[in-house]
Amino acid sequence: MIIGMLGLGFVGQGIIQILSQNRTKLESALGEAISIKSIAVRDIHKKRNIPANITLTSDSQSLITDSEIDTIIDVISGDSYDYIKQALASGKHVVSANKSVIASHQAELL
Fold first, then answer.
1. Are 70 and 90 in contact (CB under 8 A)?
2. Is the pLDDT of residue 97 over 90?
3. In sequence order, what are the beta bridge partners of 57?
4. CA 82 distance to own-chain centroid
5. For labeling, which of 10, 19, 83, 107 is most exposed (least CB within 10 Å)?
6. In Å, what is the CA distance from 62 to each residue of 39, 65, 104?
7. CA dist 11 to 68, 84, 90, 98, 110, Å?
């Protein structure tokens, strides 16, 4: 599973921590390797403590069009509806922490 993540605030940093602490268990349960390839953030110059193999970008759309990324994790604050819709339309799996967008557009997104 190759992941692209939208956002790297408190929740996004927690996801990175949980994935790295539980990588073996998660990969065993899924039957495949898990890696975060890219994270879209507002400011790529802001100092962050992330693994060196993860690319930061300010272009959220690039995660959706990247053919290697099969799963998008949405943890941005604000309206992520368009990103979720485009990711699903391109065949990607989506995990979102945005309850408002999911509640407002659930029927369409399903």
1. no
2. no
3. 40
4. 14
5. 107
6. 10, 5, 25
7. 24, 17, 25, 11, 24
